Amino acid sequence: MRFIVFGFLIFALMGCEADMLNSEFNPTLKRSSDMPSTGLSAPLSVIQEELDSPYQTVQDNQGDVRTVEDLSDENDFEAVSSRQTIESDAQRLEQNRSTYRVIEPTDLPIRSETGQPNIVEYALRTTNALRASLYKRGPFASERLTLVNCNQFESASKAQEAFLSKGGPKWDRLGLDPDGDGFACTWDPTPFRLARSGG
Question: What is the predicted pLDDT for the residue at 31?
């Protein structure tokens, strides 16, 4: 008997749910009379509004009131020529030139006392190319081992400083220069040399 009552209640609830879907539950959504009742709400109507006028006025930096259309007429020769002349262009260029400041290059700054070798000075003293072997390395020097050793430093510059402070370039006690060119890991003296030569 309980199962019959329980089944009847479920059937009644399903009927109520269908009635709620078919009813006009939301008064703002009106169902069209010619659409069949599917339980789905009818599409909303679209409200059309006029767009803002393209001739809105704005105030520029000089305080002049101009329309939006005037702000994008730089490619219009007639519009620009009515506002600018050759003389005003020359005056504006001269004013821009007077504000420029040329900074002449100076000598490299002296490094403060840090206890580490000056790698900039070292780069400028050397002339050999990368991977040009100048110094003998032991039989255990290898690219693979060097990669492991180089990963212990936060940058190639730090590795070069450590390499020079431990007897480099002649000695490679840290295993950072397997090819014997005097440059540890991926450190490259070329940028410093180019800066000095102006190239």
Answer: 47
Mean pLDDT of 111-134: 85
pLDDT score of 133 more than 60: yes
Q: Is residue 15 part of a domain?
A: no
Number of structural domains (the chain) is 2
Q: Would 112 be classed as within a structural domain?
A: no
Alpha-carbon distance 187 to 92, whole Å?
A: 46
How far apart, in Å, are the Cα atoms of 192 and each of 41, 121, 187? 73, 9, 11
Helices (H), 63-187: 77-83, 86-99, 119-125, 143-150, 156-165
Tokens of 53: 């006028």
Longest dimension (CA), the chain: 104
For the whole prediction, is pTM greater than 0.70?
no
Residue 107 lies in a domain: no
Residue 85 burial by Cβ neighbours in a 10 Å radius (0-12, 13-18, 19+)? exposed
Beta-sheet strands, E only, within the chain: 57-59, 65-67
Terminal Cα distance for the chain, rounded: 99
